[in-house]
Amino acid sequence: MKLQKIDKQQYKQRLNRVQAGLVIALFGLSLALAELYRYLLIGGESSFMLNAAGVATAAAIVTFALYHYRNHPYMAEVVYAWRLKQALNKIYRSSKKVDAALAEGNPIAVRIRYFSLHASAHLYQLEDNTLTMPELNEQIVALDEQIERLGLNVSIEDYSPELLSQL
């Protein structure tokens, strides 16, 4: 995955609108569908199962709509951040293997960690997460020193998800 330059204000605005739209759609559809199910199936009496069916149907509709519109230009920044978070989560789930290989000076682990740290910094700046930036910057400096000691030439573009399976 390549890191992209994104307009932070536009990303935040679109993310907020998408999230608000999802909440409103889920709420409205859940109520409407639950009411429709109760009216059609049991004549308007309250039923937990039909309310749950309304929520499940609404969740399915909202999920389908998100899936359908994920490639729309309006969603580009939101989907990019979502995919970046997915990539970082995948790396995090393999962090024990990466840390062990990194301690041995494995070049693959160095590339994975380099991407992970820089992608995290990119994401934190995008989402204004300033609390953990000093710690992250320290980790980047420590990794840069290790890269220099190992004599490696590493860049963000060196990362691919297949590297995780090579550890």
Please, could you describe this protein's structure?
With 167 residues, the protein is mainly α. 75% of the residues lie in helices and 0% in strands. The chain is built from 7 helices and no strands. It has helices spanning 8-42, 48-69, 76-93, 95-103, 107-126, 133-150, 162-165. Helix 4 (95-103) crosses helix 5 and helix 5 packs antiparallel against helix 6 (133-150).
The rough form would be described as elongated
The count of β-strands is 0
**H/E series, N to C?**
HHHHHHH
Note the main sheet.
none
Kindly list the characteristics that best describe this protein.
single chain, 167 residues, mainly alpha
Brief rundown of the structure:
The protein has 167 residues and is an all-alpha fold. It has helices spanning 8-42, 48-69, 76-93, 95-103, 107-126, 133-150, 162-165.
Please render the helix and strand layout as text.
Elements: H1 8-42, H2 48-69, H3 76-93, H4 95-103, H5 107-126, H6 133-150, H7 162-165
